[in-house]
């Protein structure tokens, strides 16, 4: 069986994988989730968060062959981690996530999408160093098919998101390109339009693309189904 490392997206933390981890364990896998710097229980000041610091946190959690799963924004740091040191990274899985394009920031990639549905749910801080999710739009954009209890849990744990990592350009080299990759596309996503996910997944082999009929948060909406997909990807 495989070992998974779960990397959250913007404004989230390790807590968002609460319902998925037991499902993976039940299938015989081992799995863990970490807080990126300045998220969840991590005490790094938002002003000190960088994309490379995110990547180093991921690498610091690896000590054996691991399948690394990145959700949403998490696609950028998992890619950067593989580019720095791919030794322990068995596969990268992008869960409705951004797959970096050369010489692009995450912000620039988002603007390449045909629609910007997430913007209604975002509020920038006065100095522009962070942004937060507006509670009144959170369910519509991120959790529309999730159980009420899961939405309440998420709203109680969301944090401010540092903007600098998302404004950092990346160009990925040979180490990153040597790692096998899969994409899980969420067809009801109201944060990253599904058609833009399809554009990003278009660079993957067809057999490495999986579709789920869920919102942006399949770890709450359909954790058992998500675990089954991860299981099948791990088995090749």
Automatic annotation (TrEMBL):
InterPro entries recorded: AB_hydrolase_1, AB_hydrolase_fold, MES/HNL
Pfam family, one: Abhydrolase_6
MF (Gene Ontology): methyl indole-3-acetate esterase activity; methyl jasmonate esterase activity
Limits of the AB hydrolase-1 domain: 5-228
Lineage: superkingdom: Bacteria
PANTHER family: AB HYDROLASE-1 DOMAIN-CONTAINING PROTEIN, METHYLESTERASE FAMILY MEMBER
Protein name: AB hydrolase-1 domain-containing protein
Species of the source: Puniceibacterium antarcticum
